[in-house]
Amino acid sequence: MAPPPATAAAAAAVRPHLLLRRGGGLLPSPHPGPATRAAAAGPARRLRLPPLRFSLSPVPKSLSSAASSHIPVRSLFTGIVEEVGRVRRLGPPLTPPSGGGGGGEAPGLDLEVETKTLLAGTQLGDSVAVDGTCLTVAAIDPAASTFTFGVAPETLRRTSLGERAAGDGVNLERALTPSSRMGGHFVQGHVDGTGEIAALRPDGDSLWVTVRAPPEILRLLVPKGFVAVDGTSLTVVSVDDEGGWFDFMLVRYTQDNIVLPNKKVGDKVNLEADILGKYVEKLLAGRVEAAVKADS
C-alpha cells in the first residue's frame, strides 16, 4: 500500500521535537567560540581507555519477551541532536584489545568521529549517542578533535553503523545530566532495529519522510507518539501496520541540523521505539497470560 498523500492539515498538526541544542542555548553557533577551541586544542596527546567497553546491551529478538524488562539503563538521552559529526575512520582497532576475542566471532570495529564542539567537558568512559546508538568514549584525540568508540559485533548486527564510511555525517548527543532540559523524549540509545526510507516528499519548506519498519517496532508506534530515528526524537504522524510503514515531518530548521535529509530512498535508519510503549506491552502481555491461565 502506498503512503497517503501529505495534506496541509496534517502538516499544520505535526510538531516534531527537533530543536538543536548547542551548549545551553537553543540556537546553533556556526563556529566554535574561543573557549571551545581552546578546550579542543588541549594537550596534544592521545587518550585511550583500555580495555574497550560498550554500553549498548543486546536487545531481545522479541520486544515483549520476559528478558526485555532486564535491559539495563546506563545512560539516557532526549533525542535532541547536539551536533552532526563526521566519520573519520571505521575499521579494526589500531591497538589490539588485551585478552583476545572469543570463539572466532567477527571482531568489533573502532569508530572514529570528528566533532567541532563536543570535546569540551567529555571524558573517557562517557556515553554518546551516535545515530541513536549508545556508545562509550574509548579514546579522545584533542589535537585531531576526534572521539573513538568501540562498536561491538552485536551493535553492528542491530544497527546501521557498520555501513558508515569516512566522510559520512552522524548525529551526536551526549548523555543527559541532571540539569539538562528535556526537549524530546526518553531515549536509551538501545536500538530496536533498523528501518528503510521508503519516501521523501517535500511539502513547502518541510519534508515528509516515510519509513518501512518491522512489525515488532510498528506495533509500538502510535500517531502523535514518539520514535527515535537515527537518534532524533520525532513525532509520529501516521502508522500503517498492514502496509508496514510510518511517517513524520521534518521542519526546515531540523533538516539543516540532522543527517536524515541527506539520506536517500532505500537507506537504512536506526529505530528506537518509546520505552513507555514497551512497558505497556509487557504489562498487558502479563495480564493476558494470567487471564488465560485462570480460565484453563
UniProtKB/TrEMBL annotation:
Start and stop residues of the Lumazine-binding repeats: 76-185, 186-284
Cross-referenced InterPro entries: ATP_synth_asu-like_sf, Lumazine-bd, Lumazine-bd_dom, Riboflavin_synthase-like_b-brl
Highest taxon of source: Eukaryota
CDD domains associated with the record: Riboflavin_synthase_like
Top-level EC class as recorded in UniProt: transferase
PROSITE patterns membership: LUMAZINE_BIND (PS51177)
Calcium listed as a keyword: no
Physiological role: Catalyzes the dismutation of two molecules of 6,7-dimethyl-8-ribityllumazine, resulting in the formation of riboflavin and 5-amino-6-(D-ribitylamino)uracil.
Name the record gives this protein: Riboflavin synthase
